[in-house]
Design goal:
Length: 175
């Protein structure tokens, strides 16, 4: 059970990618984390394909795979002799893997992965909240700028009126 200490948050979070607008992990990365061959992971998924609908797991297209490879400058796929396009697992798909991979290491790894997904989701929520706060501050500043301009224009008008006024004749008793 001490295997969980071997996987750092950074190790797991570096293997979470954003593909098709979703946070996913690739089959080869998951297999590496679980300590099994990618081939074995794919076999288990294919045996239990009913557990992995499209929103849990999908196969990358050639274009997506090439884009992913170029983004991360990983030509390892050529060295690894890839014959099949990688499978991408969403958070729910990774969770479902725990029901088909039953080793203790797989269970502990899944627990860690779920914790990381939760942290990533929280970080995204936090940054969204910060963005909203910044937008509100920007709106306030824009309003302040407009108000300051308005005050200065009123002051300009008042000073112009004062300059245009000629001295008034005083009414009353003279001494």
């Amino acid at each position: 059970m001490e295997d969980q200490s071997l996987l750092s948050e950074e190790t797991i979070s570096n293997k979470i990618y954003f593909i098709r607008g979703q946070k996913v992990m690739l089959d080869r990365d998951l297999a590496l984390l679980y300590g099994i061959e990618t081939k074995r992971l794919k076999e288990q998924v294919k045996r239990n394909v009913i557990r992995f609908p499209e929103d849990f797991m999908f196969e990358l297209t050639k274009k997506e795979f090439e884009n992913w490879r170029s983004q991360f400058a990983t030509s390892n796929s050529e060295k690894m002799g890839l014959r099949y396009l990688p499978m991408a697992f969403t958070e729910h798909g990774v969770l479902m893997l725990s029901s088909v991979l039953k080793s203790d290491k797989a269970i502990q790894t899944n627990i860690q992965i779920m914790r990381i997904f939760t942290k990533v989701r929280q970080m995204l929520l936090d940054t969204t909240e910060i963005k909203v706060d910044i937008l509100q501050i920007q709106k306030k500043l824009e309003n302040h700028d407009k108000n300051i301009e308005l005050v200065f224009s009123y002051l300009d008008e008042l000073t112009e009126k004062k300059e245009d006024e000629c001295e008034r004749v005083k009414i009353g008793y003279k001494k």
